[in-house]
Write a structure and sequence with these properties.
It is a single-pass membrane protein. The chain is α/β, with parallel strands linked by helices and about 425 residues long. It folds into two domains: about 190 residues, Rossmann fold, CATH 3.40.50; about 190 residues, Glycogen Phosphorylase B (Rossmann fold), CATH 3.40.50.
Length: about 425
Amino acid sequence: MRYLYTLLMYLATPLIVMRLLTRGMRYGNYHQRWPERFGIFKAPDLRGSIWVHAVSVGEVNAAEPLIKALREDYPNAPLVVTTVTPTGSARVQQLFGGSVFHVYLPYDLPFSVHRFLKQIRPRLALIVETEIWPNLYFGCYRRGIPLMIVNARLSGRSLRGYAPMRALLGSALRCVRHIAAQSRTDAARYRLLGADPALVTVSGNLKFDMPVPDGAVEGGEMFREQWGRLRPVWIAASTHEGEELAVLEAHLEVLKRLPDALLLIAPRHPERFRLVEHSVRSLGFTTATRSADRVPGESHQVFLIDTMGELMPFFAASDVAFVGGSLVPIGGHNVLEPAALARPVLVGPHTFNFEEITLTLIRGGGAKRVLQSEALGGEVLELLQDGVRCKQMGRQARVVFDSERGAVGRVMHLIDRMLQE
């Protein structure tokens, strides 16, 4: 199975190169770094490094408290962080600067994996969440590099999608020394996929241990001072195609009862910023953008957050938070950021990527599910008009957030034990 998989990967290489060239045109200097995807890069002496792989922005954010703990407990070990996306790379730079070495993860081709591992020479490999690459896993196993999957999650949808490759992925998982799953459900799914049951434990979700960034609350207070402290404000974060229109229709409903209400909207992907701005303006909303106007004025009805890595102060400045990727079948995004700031959370019906967290928050009274996009405006309006319920729901979100913390300590215990062995 692995030989067949590798052959297909080689046959797909011309398409991979075309995709790299296309992405290079979209993302500034990415074309200068695409050789990294084939294991070609210059690196300092990284012998004995600890390597953390986080696919994109969400996984980098989840890994932040763990990377900081590794930096504190193993100050002499070089830290290598890999991502797949340019936005993930930018987030690594924003969070850690030059204190870690960033390189893009190579494609799962044997020669690319060989070059990559020869360069970074890790003493430990940590894969965040769900990435299973057979040749990479076998490469670590052959070199005696202990490999862990941390904050491991596996949705029911992914498990079904992996069915045709279950034998291949099961053999790859047998190269893993330990799987630290987010929940009992995730642990069970990894066992079904072929992981050794004795090597799968539940450690909780690293995202509950994420720190509220310095200045986020103060930044939110500053925003409120600038656009009007008493204005009702809600945020639609990490929205996807097919959601912005529903959000804007919901805001029209809100404006009918609360004419001074402000909507903050943050599309998930930067390549859609201009398209969303055009949609907002074409619907007649008075609009400001973060890149051009910095903050909205009292007359603006919609504020487009067309920058990356700034969501937390805007969550802090909002009364209600809707988390996107959930009205369309994307699977939802991180509901913990608004919960950490004691903001009530609304989500749509599709939250399978964050199933356990979302359900925990809903059961704890800190979040509510909106089953149809047409109902979003009414739910937002109800919370904005009922300040007591809004604040109570936000407090419950924070209680749930605090009660679930501790995953970093449990994962660090596993890492310490593995490195000692």
